[in-house]
Amino acid sequence: MLAGIGPAPRRSGPTWRQFLAAQAAGILAVDFLHVDTVLLKRIYVLVFIEHGSRRMHLGGITTDPTGDWTVQQAPAPPQPRSHSRRPVRGTSGFLIRDRGSNFTALFDAVFQAGGTRIVRTGAVQAPRMKRDLRVPRQYPAP
Question: Is the pTM of this model over 0.90?
Answer without folding.
Answer: no
